[in-house]
Structure prediction request, 544 residues.
Amino acid sequence: MSEMVCDNCGSTDAVVHLTQIVNNEMSTFHLCEKCAAEKGLESTPEPVSVPLTDFLAQMGHEQGEEIQPGGQKCSYCGLTFKDFRETGRLGCPHCYETFAPSLRRLLRRVHGGTQHVGKVYLPPDPSASEMEKRLEGLRRRLHRAIESEDFERAAELRDQIRSLEPA
Amino acid sequence: MEEFSSIPDYGLNWLEASGDHADIVLSTRVRLARNLQGHAFGPRARVNDREAVLRQFRACAPRCESLRDGTLLELDGAEPRTRRILLERRLVTRDLLGDPGEDPARGAAVHLSGANPTSVMVNEEDHLRVQSLVSGLRIEEAWRLVDRLDEELGRELPFAFHQEFGFLTSCPTNVGTGLRASVFMHLPGLVLTKEIGKVLQGLGQVGLTFRGLYGEGSEVVGNFFQVSNQTTLGKAEEDLVDHLDKVVRQVIQYEMHARQVLLRDALGVTEDKIWRAYGLLRYARTLSFEELMNLLSGVRLGLSLKLLPGLRVYTLNKMMIFTQPAHLEQAAGRDLPAAEGDAHRAAYVRRILATEGDVSADDSLSGESRPPTGPDA
Prediction:
């Protein structure tokens, strides 16, 4: 197959091909890795249930592994990737940045993707984009509450949205 | 600090058996894992991290409506028996209590709400584990309770949150939503008809997992299973919760079907098993906890099938909790070596069944309605 254009951003490296059947109509989308990840789609098929420790032990030992972070260390808590591999536990929130590339591979295997789509936390002193993300999340939940006719819930969410929206 | 003896009812709401399918689903629990920015996660946290986490939580808790009228128990200062009672009620984990025989680490605490069945473990593997425990199958309600509490806490506490990975947790298997919903089920029909293997395997294929009574690594005793979601990232909380609810309802259908098969194809054997279990509970002089759980399983099945009239689910639930070692010791007011504990357990069960579960009066009824085969019947 020659180069595919991503239907979302127009780049020429679409690698995820999604076929959907909605109301008996089939449609196919082509997406690059980045756009697919943003939509919560991953090129990895189903999450497989391998014990975490087995998988961790394997990590970093694979052929042609570019990231060999065995000696890499979290600058905040001092955890090395080796420590993580042995215990299966990260040391602190910063570790997620430090080991992000390896973690993404792990998260794809464990959860089937890397993008969180649930509740969006709003820090006490939020930036504009954090505020927007939070509102997006709340609107998504509101929509869902209305769809499932949970009006009590919908009213709560609507109040939360109103309290955040600029007057 | 308040001691547990003065707050005896925490974590017992679910016993009332008021939730949906309470004979098959004992309880539903939802927990969220949350961590605070600027501190190492539980396993790597130093004493000053742990103390700071507890301090921040303590300052915030009184302003949380969901934690109203509650109590914060610091576990390193609590009586050893109190800690074990909390564990037996599943309000704390072994992990939070630390190594057996040693005091829990500084800062390990649990906040029990007086307003509703929610609690927060502080300084477990994650800084906060927010949880709710309700009767029967009520996943939606359990989720709402923790969601509300999480919102209240999040308004004041600086949670560690990442735009891509979501809520950050010590173990990457919890990252994202940090949500684990688990339903505690009694599935004797599927075990007796040998269908259980297929069902458990099926759970794995739809992203769910199962465990024994006390969570991770514990054995399945008395046909009791905890079914929970396996993945926490990439799906919204409501989807995780809905999915579990749907699958559990399906498992309940399979279980009810299996029970009908038992009644149809093996009524005599099933009835005999149930009455033997009841007889042992009613009259035995010693009972190990494991034996008790197996017998309670039989009696619970009998109750569901209406073969043991006059017995209530509440009575059976109560027997599961108050016959655990620390609860028996609490009632006796002293430590009990294993053999003595077995005698106390049997005595407690006899007493409860004599007052709340005397089904012998209806025995003849059951016999008449299902006579043994024979010309005179």
